[in-house]
Amino acid sequence: MIRKNPRGDLPQIDPSAFVDPTAILCGLVVVEENVFIGPYAVIRADEMDADGNIDPIIIGAHSNIQDGVVIHSKSGAQVTIDERTSIAHRAIVHGPCTVGNGVFIGFNSVLFNCTIEDRCVVRYNAVVDGVHLPSGFYVRSTERIGPETDLAALPQVTADASDFSEDVARTNNELVRGYKSIQNEF
Predict the structure, then answer these.
(1) Which CDD domains does the annotation name (predicted)?
(2) How many domains does the chain have?
(3) Residue 89 is part of which domain span?
(4) What is the pLDDT of residues 38-48, one digit of tens each?
(5) 185 pLDDT more than 70
(6) Nearest CA to 101 among 115, 119, 113, 78?
């Protein structure tokens, strides 16, 4: 469902993107080319700051927002998901938040008030809260990363983890083409 927010902003969706009919996109959401948005995803840019302003939620080209993902933002703060990034099933991205290029965010993970730079991998059930995570870092499953975390103790993304991330992005890009070809059938 594509709908306006209370201020009247409508999502802007590139014609090459696929948005599942069960997904909800509300307000100042920008979906770039060849993006996959899966079933029951919710992307809401509807809260305003004290002056009535809302920054956009931007989903970069060739990224995928999988089933049940929630992307929202506090008081109209911006959320940016850069290109070729995968946000896996039931993850929550709550702004303000910036997620770089080629990032993988695992199932049920939570991102809040953070920046995650390019090529990072955040595995399932992890939390990244209030921290700037430099490029190429690997967050293990169930780990909590915050301002008190010693980033030097975090491992770098391995070649296997990088290959996995790239394969997920490639697979979802193929889903865009597949679903676009049959979208008039449902």
Answers:
(1) LbH_gamma_CA
(2) 1
(3) 2-185
(4) 999 999 999 99
(5) no
(6) 119
